[in-house]
Amino acid sequence: MNKIIEVKHLKKNYGDKEVLKDINAVIEKGKVITVIGPSGSGKSTFLRCLNLLEKPTSGQVTFEGTELTDLTEEELDQLRQKMGMVFQSFNLFPNMSVIENVMLAPMKVKGMSDQEAGDLAHELLAKVGLDDFADHSPASLSGGQQQRVAIARALAMQPDMMLFDEPTSALDPEMVGEVLKTMQDLAQTGMTMVVVTHEMGFARKVADEVWFMADGYLLEQGSPDQVFDHPQSDRSKDFLAKILEA
């Protein structure tokens, strides 16, 4: 098994509130994991603990053989470059063009030349179907287009894996499909991905594994068929019955 991340006994508290309760999981290289479950179940907190944007209260997160909870902030920043992250909000710099947004981190962090970063940015924007918009301002794009630029920007750091925190939840319904299509294309390249999502069709179609979280626990892990068609826990049966009937 080619592990890229291993999580052991992960717990996260905010004051007296226990958000994550003894989570154990392994993410294998090249796999697409979708994390589903009710709102407030700890999914986004779990995702943010994988690159220590949230510091666990206890437990271990090991990424490519390195235990993250022992690292200094500087060492963490180095490792975070290998984990691209896409959030609900696009967070593009409004004063820069689309291509400048994608070029910025490779030039600043990786020391790429203007030419190298520009070539890479054009390649990635073409991959997400937006190279024709390279010189546009982010404000002139739809929400779906901005999120696809955000994906290209994360890929510009040439990460080993990608984390997506409900990337379509802030979008109008008609824009969701274009972002999911971009993510599906990315999955087919062999990119390791962990996706927190409410899009059950995407979870069923694209994931290698579906993880169901509720009440701070990782209650089920299995193939899409196992989790959607043969859920084991009462909590997941109840959740899926409500979601899939809606």
From TrEMBL:
Keyword field contains Cell membrane: yes
InterPro entries per record: AAA+_ATPase, ABC_ATPase_HisP-typ, ABC_transporter-like_ATP-bd, ABC_transporter-like_CS, MetN_ABC_transporter-like, P-loop_NTPase
Keyword annotations: Amino-acid transport, ATP-binding, Cell membrane, Membrane, Nucleotide-binding, Transport
Recorded GO CC terms: plasma membrane
Every ABC transporter domain range: 5-240
One GO molecular-function entry: ATP hydrolysis activity
Protein's name in the database: High affinity arginine ABC transporter (ATP-binding protein)
Organism: Lactobacillus delbrueckii subsp. delbrueckii
Gene: artR
